[in-house]
Specification:
It holds the Pfam family GHMP_kinases_N. The protein contains 11 helices and 13 strands. By secondary structure, the protein is α+β, with helices and mostly antiparallel strands. Strands 2, 3, 4, 5, 6, 7, 8 and 13 form an 8-stranded mixed β-sheet that branches. The longest helix has 26 residues, at 290-315. The structure holds adenosine-5'-diphosphate and magnesium ion. The site of magnesium ion (MG) has 5 residues, from helix 3.
Length: 410
C-alpha cells in the first residue's frame, strides 16, 4: 500500500537554521539576519480581488525563509532550495538590469521586489544583496509560494534599509511593491489578495479583505475548538498564472468594469442586478459572446455577496452555513468562471459531503475541505483513490492552520 504524502512543515527555528546553513554553504559567510513570510490559503472569495470584491484567506504556518546580507555593489546573488527540488537554483543579476520581464524566470519575484521598492521610493538606493532561500510552501499549488517569496524579501529589504521592522502602516506600503514585482516584472496579473494575507496574517485568525474599501479585518478561525480541521489536497497538477488563462478572465472583468462604472471604480458601486443587465448589452455592442461575459461577471458579483455572508457565518461560528458557501463557491468557479480542472473536480467530488472547494487561481492547484478531524484519514484515502482511478498525479496533503504574517526570524 502507498503512503500518503504529507507536505513537510518545518518550525520557524528549523527554517532559520536551514536558511543560515544554505547561506553559509553557498556564500561562505554569515547573513545579517533571516526573514520569513507564509503562504496562504484562500478559504472563500476567489477571482474577486481584482474586481473590488471580498476574500477570506489566512496565512499558513508553512513559510519561505530568506537569509540575507547586504552588498555594496548593486549585485544580487540568490540561491534557492525550493520544496521538492533536488538541486538548489542559483541566480545572479545587476539591480540596474531589472525591469518588466527582466529577468524572465523565478528570480523575478525576488529582484522584482527590490526593483519595485526602489521605483516607488521605499528604498531609493537599494544596495545589492546575497540571499539564501528555503521554503515549505508548495510551488504552483494555489497556496501562494509567489507571495511568500515576495513578502519575505520585502520585509528583509525594508528592515535592512530602514533599520527597523515595518509598522502596520509600512506593511501596507509593501503590498503594492510586492504586487508590482508580480504584475510588472513577472507578468502575472494577480490582484493583491496573496500579499495582504502573507503580510497581515495573525495566528488563529482569518482575514476578511475588502478590496473595494481597502480594509483588512481579522475574524476568529479557531477550528480546533469545534474539532474541525481544514485539509488541503494539492492535486500536483501545477498551475501557471502567467500563461494567459488567468489574464483572459481578468481582462473581461477589467473591461466590463471600466465600461459600467468607469476608471478607478469598482463593480461594488452599482447594484448586482444592474451590473448583470448592463453587461449583456455592453457585450453585444462589443461583439463579444454575451453568455461568457455574463457568466464571468455573475461569478464575480455573486462570489462577493457569498463571501460577505460567509464572513458573518464565521463571526457567528455557524460552520454548517460556511460549508454550504464553500460548496457554492466551487460550483461557481467551475460553472461560471470555468477555472476548475478535472483534477480539482475529482478531489472536490471525493470530499463532496463536507464543505469543499478549489482554492486560489484555479487551472490546477489545490482543493480545501472543512471537516471533522476524525474524518481526515478516510477523506485523504478517498481523494487519493479518486486521483489514482482517473490516472491523475498523486495528491499531497497538509492541514492548514492560521499562522502569523511576514517577520524576522533571527
Ligand atoms: P503559487 O503562488 O500558487 O505557488 P505561482 O505560479 O503564482 O504559484 O508562483 C509560483 C512561482 O513562484 C514558481 O514557478 C517560481 O517561479 C516562484 N517560486 C515560488 N517559491 C519559490 C522558491 N522557494 N524558489 C524559487 N522560486 C520560487
Ligand atoms: Mg502565486
Amino acid at each position: 500500500m502507498k503512503m500518503t504524502q504529507w507536505i513537510n512543515t518545518r518550525t520557524p527555528e528549523e527554517l532559520d537554521r536551514d536558511a543560515r546553513q544554505l547561506f553559509d554553504d553557498h556564500f561562505g559567510t554569515k547573513p545579517a539576519g533571516v526573514w520569513a513570510a507564509p503562504g496562504r490559503v484562500n478559504v472563500i472569495g476567489d477571482h474577486v480581488d481584482y474586481a473590488g470584491g471580498v476574500s477570506i484567506p489566512f496565512a499558513l504556518t508553512q513559510m519561505t525563509a530568506l537569509a540575507v546580507r547586504l552588498r555594496s555593489d548593486q549585485r544580487v546573488r540568490i540561491i534557492s532550495q525550493a520544496p521538492g527540488a533536488i538541486d538548489p537554483l542559483s541566480f545572479e543579476m545587476e539591480l540596474s538590469e531589472v525591469g518588466p520581464k527582466h529577468p524572465d524566470n523565478w528570480a523575478g519575484y525576488v529582484v522584482g521586489v527590490l526593483w519595485a521598492g526602489q521605483q516607488s521610493g521605499i528604498w531609493p538606493n537599494c544596495p545589492g544583496m546575497d540571499i539564501a532561500i528555503v521554503s515549505d510552501v508548495p510551488v504552483g499549488s494555489g497556496l501562494s509560494s509567489s507571495a511568500a517569496l515576495e513578502c519575505a524579501i520585502a520585509v528583509a529589504a525594508f528592515e535592512l534599509t530602514h533599520g527597523h521592522a515595518p509598522s502596520q502602516e509600512e506593511r501596507g506600503q509593501l503590498v503594492p511593491v510586492c504586487m508590482r514585482a508580480e504584475n510588472d516584472v513577472v507578468g502575472a496579473s494577480t490582484g493583491g489578495l496573496d500579499q495582504r494575507a502573507s503580510l497581515f496574517g495573525v495566528a488563529g485568525k482569518a482575514l476578511v479583505i475588502d478590496f473595494h474599501a481597502d480594509t483588512v479585518t481579522l475574524v476568529p478561525f479557531d477550528l480546533a475548538a469545534q474539532d474541525m480541521v481544514l485539509l488541503v489536497a494539492d492535486t500536483n497538477a501545477p498551475h501557471a498564472l502567467n500563461d494567459g488563462q488567468y489574464a483572459s478572465r481578468r481582462g473581461i472583468i477589467d473591461e466590463v468594469s471600466l465600461a459600467l462604472v468607469g476608471e478607478g471604480k469598482t463593480l461594488r458601486e452599482i447594484a448586482a442586478e444592474q451590473a448583470l443587465s448592463q453587461a449583456d448589452a455592453w457585450a453585444i455592442e462589443q461583439g463579444l459572446d454575451a453568455s461568457i461575459v455574463r457568466r464571468r461577471l455573475q461569478h464575480v458579483v455573486e462570489e462577493t455577496q457569498r463571501t460577505l455572508k460567509a464572513a458573518e457565518a464565521l463571526q457567528d461560528a455557524d460552520m454548517a452555513a460556511f460549508r454550504q458557501y464553500m460548496q457554492e463557491s466551487h460550483e461557481s468557479l467551475r460553472d461560471l468562471y470555468e477555472v476548475v480542472t478535472e483534477e480539482l473536480e475529482s478531489a472536490f467530488q471525493a470530499a463532496g459531503r463536507f464543505g469543499a472547494r478549489m482554492t486560489g487561481g484555479g487551472f490546477g492547484g489545490s482543493v480545501i475541505v472543512l471537516l471533522p478531524e476524525s474524518e481526515v484519514e478516510d477523506t485523504v484515502a478517498q481523494i487519493s483513490r479518486a486521483a489514482a482511478d482517473a490516472g491523475f498525479p498523486e495528491c499531497s496533503f497538509l492541514l492548514a492552520v492560521p499562522g502569523d504574517g511576514a517577520r524576522r526570524l533571527s
